[in-house]
Design a protein that fits this description.
2 domains; 5 strands; 7 helices; about 50% helix; 5-stranded antiparallel beta sheet
């Protein structure tokens, strides 16, 4: 298994796609029930294979990741063979909570405050792009859209 198995809740979300996946394996609903009851090894293999397919598809289509804590925000953009990271760290007693809806607005309002530390970096990722994205997800990142990344990138440019 390349990634991790989907959770029960995730399988429920993808139940129609899972049925399509089983159909490509020439397994209909009654056959699947029989496999689940009689062949735990094959059940595990099918669940793992489907999970890898879902993760691979999600990662292939993702471009932005985000990790946010009250005093720390990291956004990543995976484009081609490169990843760019922008990080904001709130130091000291500055009253900004990056998990709140007004957190980024407060950062922009106080951008010159020395307690707001912004870093950026670039890295080549090459063929291991999806694996690097998945590692970041296992460390707490979430797939997101371009809004926060673009706003931060524009502000620091």
């Amino acid at each position: 298994m390349k990634y991790t198995r989907l959770t029960k809740e995730q399988f429920e979300i993808f139940h129609e796609k899972f049925a399509e996946f089983l159909a490509t394996q020439q397994i209909d609903n009654s056959e699947w029930k029989k496999i689940v009851e009689t062949n735990p090894k094959m059940t595990e293999e099918q669940l793992d294979l489907f999970s890898d397919i879902v993760w691979e598809d999600a990662l292939k289509n993702a471009e932005y990741l985000e990790h946010v804590d009250p005093k720390d925000l990291k956004v990543f953009r995976f484009k081609g063979s490169k990843v760019k990271m922008i990080s904001i760290k709130i130091k000291g007693d500055l009253d900004i909570d990056l998990t709140k809806s007004n957190g980024i607005t407060k950062v922009f309002e106080n951008i010159m405050d020395s307690r707001i530390v912004i870093h950026q970096g670039n890295k080549k990722v090459g063929r291991q792009r999806n694996e690097e994205m998945f590692q970041l997800i296992t460390e707490g990142c979430m797939i997101t859209d371009e809004r926060i990344y673009n706003a931060l990138n524009e502000a620091i440019s």
